[in-house]
């Protein structure tokens, strides 16, 4: 039985970065229903690496006349880093299909998704939802006859924002 003190201490423990899920739900596709049915759901947990969770605020310097001890920093615009998903190449075409759909549709195939970190027990501990994601860049595997390694493909997602969920 865990006590409230144990629960509080568990909240302050760092989460492992090797346990996570990624979901791209077909229900969250920004396409007409007939086209949305053509896109399959990417299986949760099918990725070995996720990078790019981040954002930045562009700041402009504004020197005020007559004030020589400091320069004002004013916010200009906010932008979100692209999220990159990497996985070993498998025989399905899910990532390529999403990228290809965006090539043939003038509006693109926007999707919402979630990146979910798991605790040691495999339960969701923290997650981020991305909104209006587009498959902006697909990269196929590097092939080398002299190496015995897993072929990796990656997909870069340009999106319109993240929401942190506890």
Helix content bin:
10-25%
Identify the overall geometry: extended
Average pLDDT rating = 79
| Biggest sheet details | 7 strands, antiparallel
> Using DSSP, what is the number of strands?
9
Structural class by secondary-structure content? mainly beta
Residues in β-strands, percent: 35-45%
Classify the oligomer: single chain
Enumerate the spans where pLDDT stays under 50 for 5 or more consecutive residues: 39-45
Order of helices and strands: HEHEEEEHEEEE
**End-to-end gap:** 23 Å
Instruction: Indicate the radius of gyration in whole angstroms.
Output: 21 Å
How many helix segments?
A: 3
Q: How would you sum up this structure in a few lines?
A:
14% of the residues lie in helices and 43% in strands. With 166 residues, it is mainly beta. 12% of the residues are buried.
Throw out a few tags for this protein.
seven-stranded antiparallel beta sheet, single chain, mainly beta, 3 helices, 166 residues
